[in-house]
Amino acid sequence: MDDTRKNIIQLIVIVVAATFLIKLFSIQVLDSKYAQAANSNIIHEVIEYPYRGLIYDRNGDLIVFNTPQYNLTVIPKDVKKIDTTKFCELFQITRQEFVEKLEMAKKFSYVQPSIFIKQLSNKDLAKVQDYLVDFQGFDIQARTTRSYASPVLANALGYVSEVSKRQLERDTIDYYRQGDYIGQSGLESFYEKQLRGKRGVHYVIKNVRGVEKGVFDEGKYDTLSVPGQNLVSTIDLTLQEYGESLMAGKSGSIVAIEPSSGEILSLVSGPSYDPNLLTGKDYSQNFSLISADTAKPLFNRPLMAQYRPGSIFKIIQALVALQEGVITRQTYIPCIMVPMKCHYHGPGETLIGAITNSCNPYFYNVMKRVVNRGISESPFEDTRLGLEGWNQHVKSFGLGSPLGIDLPNEKTGLVPSVAYYDRAYDNRPWKYSNIYSIAIGEGENLVVPIQMANFAAIVANRGYYYIPHLVKSIGDSGQPLPQYTEKHFTTVDSKYFDIAVEAMANVVESGTGQYRAKLKDIEVCGKTGTVQNDPMPDHSVFIAFAPKDNPKIAVSVYVEDAGQGARAAASIASLMIEKYLLGGTERPHIEEYVKKGEFLY
Amino acid sequence: MSGRDNITNNIDWLTVILFMSIAFLGWLNIFAAVYDESANQSIFDMTLNSGRQLFFMASSIILIIAIMVVDFKFYDTFAYIIYGVVIFLLILVVFVAREISGANSWLEIGPLRLQPSEFAKFATALAVAKYMDSAGFRMDRLSKQIVLFIIIGLPAILIIAQGDTGTALVYSVFVLVFFREGMSPMLLILGVAAAIIFVLTLLVPNHLYLYIGIAATAAVIILFIKKRTFKKIGLVLAGALIIAGVIRSVDYVISDVLRPHQQNRIKALINPDADPLGYGWNVTQSKIAIGSGGFAGKGFLKGTQTKFDFVPEQSTDFIFCTIGEEHGWFGSLLTISLFVTLILRIIYISERQKWRFARVYGYSVACIIFFHFAVNIGMTIGLFPVIGIPLPLFSYGGSSLWGFAILVFILLKLDSHRMQVLVR
């Protein structure tokens, strides 16, 4: 027999072997995708989430801390033959939810874990932990969420939630990843960079069942997580809680500042919500409830509500006029009820009496003297020149622009300027007789409560202020942000403030504040304001500081739709002062009066 | 000259060395396939596959010595009896069997667990050789061919009955042996053609193109026939019709004859990426393991895909993944070269036999090893569907190792006596 058939068989063997070697060469040497696939098979990225910084109050009590929360994660690749019915029963989801969630996870990645059920509580965790071994591919991932020691200060603290799609898009340095938490408002947002810390990553090797088999490449690529910095807040938690209890059921705000430092002692916004509602599993459900609430509990009134300043503005008018030298302490102006009406007091007043009794015609004349100096022949031009100077003075009190507090969304208020009136009158001429309602704090003026509290602090300091702020120490520095250690002076000399102080002391001693703001042992200086709010009842406003010498606390209180400033606001302000300086009130009837909340007769 | 000296002098030492080398490399890779660095394991640990494989290797040496000392005429004389015994065992297995991974192919005799199907190969080879060596045998006689196909078909059917289709497919390789011994190449060509058409049918979703292709081919053939007789044209047309019929039947075969897991294996071959976590998993992971080896591999015991269980059956059917991953293309080249050398050497040995019995038997050994080699490595790199048959001498398993030892060393025994036989 010839060799043909033998050769054919040998050829078949060699051809097959050669085919194998060529195929092997192509997948082993030429194609690198298999090597990558092998790595992604075994290398798993384990993210170590940093501990978010804590927030303490000024006395070292915790306000915000972290509690562990557990997410159920899933790696779709590893999900095999699980008892879906049992699973759904255990986690209380429907079969359809199960399928949908799994599809979502698959869309994200087959091999990377994604969150299947968010934020199981400790109780839930205990319930399911023992069964978890039956559900291959599912795992528990520990994260921390925010907890709040007390159900107060919600709007100032803000809340933390998962980073949104839009935030991810705007995050140009790619710090955040889907599923990360980010401060969404308040301090959590303002100090996000300090609080968030740094994410750590380590790479581990896992076998096909997800059992860890060691670290990848001796941990060469691993990074440690760095915890966020703790913040010491300026808030006095006890005072804050007290303030919120006083504001309960009312709309308005309380701002208390330590004048000598600008540190905010309490920042009450009413109505508010329990910050613990916006954390944990029910976040989204609660958030939609809270944001749909018509009382707007998410509206941070101390910073965002703009009101006309009312009578309180008369003190500023007096200070500006004194500085400009157009009046003196002794300047007497008769109360002729023209062009403005007035309350029933004497036939005329000198400066202190005019402030104490809140005389409207007096301050009509004071501002007229400031604005119309006769520099120009034309009353129009003269008013323009005068208003320009007036505007500069008033703005130096921190009005008309954001103060720069360490919270987002601070409103500016409004100090009318020449340009403002030009716009308002569409460039037709205007003069003092057109704008005089701003003389008594009505008209176009707008302030926010924090600015008024800051104004009380300015008077308390006799002419300067520190920007109000909520954080006095970041991390271990013991220091606030640098801008909060800088003194800001007004354009009014210190000596004129003594007159304002005296007048404010008088208001409490013998004026509108005497019934509800006067304290036995502490000399309180204050000023009532009643902000017109047609057709609703007026807003009740009071600013105060105490004690008169070496003041420790400056307060502004706004209570909406509560009538005269001497009632609701003055009561609350004085109670806050008592609480802060004495630890409690000696006038339980005032406290009761406030809590009852019937201020309109 | 004593019998013992005769054996050692005339034995084909090259084959023995190749055999031992492959078994030794297999043993190292069986260890590497499941090696766990943290467990501080030893290759001799009897709780590991590698420890047990060493025991199998040692016991096969006893088996080999036994084969060598038995008179060489024994295998010829008792060929049918051995075949009969093995067929009996296979029937026995169908009734009293231990199920392992879906196939009932294990027989327990005391502490020993055997897979008779592994021994059926050499028995069948002996029977085929004996029958072809019998007086009056003519390859071109249809009746003789039928008997041959019964000899190889019987064990195959019994093994299919056990649920081990993969091992049964091995018997198809005897067609190569028959071809060597003078059978018309038509069967071989038809087989290959059918396979090509089958695969084409799966690859080309629109069968219309295939029909057009067949019609065009038939037309061209008719055009080039020198003497266009009615009979020849009719033959070509009939052939074309039959092929078209095969195409029509593929869908039926796939969905109705094959069982679901077999359908999936074919689907995985055509497109493993369609369901990489389902039926494509084995092929995908096997290719990842081998493909990640690069040119030189990750190093002995440094592989990750096999020992972390991404590759299934990594000590047995997918043992080649360990070579590919840890020793790269270079290791694959070495392994494949060893097998090719062994197969070609056995063919060479077969060809030098004057006795037809020994030659047919030798070709059977070469072809059986070749079939295992081709299908096993082919499936790990995605060129064949996943058919669970071991890589000879390499994969973990006692029955398999013993089976191949018997196969090869009976041939070496026969070969060592080749000078003593007279040409019939």
Question: Can you offer a commentary on this structure?
Answer:
Chain A folds into two domains: 68-144, Ribosomal Protein L30, Chain: A, CATH 3.30.1390; 237-596, DD-peptidase/beta-lactamase superfamily (Beta-lactamase, 3-Layer(aba) Sandwich). The longest helix of chain A is centred in the first third of the chain and has 27 residues, at 4-30. In chain A, the strands form six sheets. In chain A, strands 2, 3, 4, 5, 10 and 16 form a six-stranded mixed beta sheet that branches. Chain A contains 22 helices and 20 strands. Chain A is elongated, with a radius of gyration of 34 Å. In chain A, a hairpin with a 5-residue loop joins strand 2 and strand 3 (62-74). In chain A, helix 10 runs antiparallel to helix 21, helix 13 crosses helix 15 (360-371) and helix 21 (568-582) crosses helix 22. Chain A has 601 residues and is of the alpha+beta class. In chain A, 37% of the residues lie in helices and 18% in strands. By secondary structure, chain B is mainly α. Chain B has a domain at 3-71 and 258-420. Chain B contains 17 helices and three strands. Chain B has helices spanning 3-10, 13-34, 49-69, 73-77, 79-95, 116-133, 142-161, 165-169, 174-180, 186-203, 207-224, 230-257, 260-270, 281-291, 320-351, 356-380, 398-416; strands at 98-100, 103-109, 112-114. In chain B, strands 1-2-3 form a three-stranded antiparallel beta sheet. In chain B, helix 3 (49-69) runs parallel beside helix 17 and helix 6 runs parallel beside helix 17 (398-416). The longest helix of chain B has 32 residues, at 320-351. The two termini of chain B are 26 Å apart. In chain B, 42% of the residues are buried.
Quaternary structure state of the chains depicted: heterodimer
Q: For the largest interface in this structure, which chains are involved and how many residues does each contribute? A: A-B, 38 and 47 residues
Strand tally of chain B, please? 3
Instruction: Give the name of the CATH superfamily of the largest domain in chain A.
Output: DD-peptidase/beta-lactamase superfamily
Task: Characterize the overall form of chain A.
Answer: elongated
Structural class of chain B: mainly alpha
Give the H and E element order of chain B: HHHHHEEEHHHHHHHHHHHH
Low-confidence stretches of chain A: none
Question: For the record, what CATH class of the largest domain in chain A applies?
Answer: Alpha Beta
Summarize the biggest pleated sheet of chain B. 3 strands, antiparallel
Count of DSSP E strands of chain A? 20
Computed structural class of chain A: alpha+beta
- Poorly predicted sequence stretches spanning 5 or more consecutive residues of chain B: none
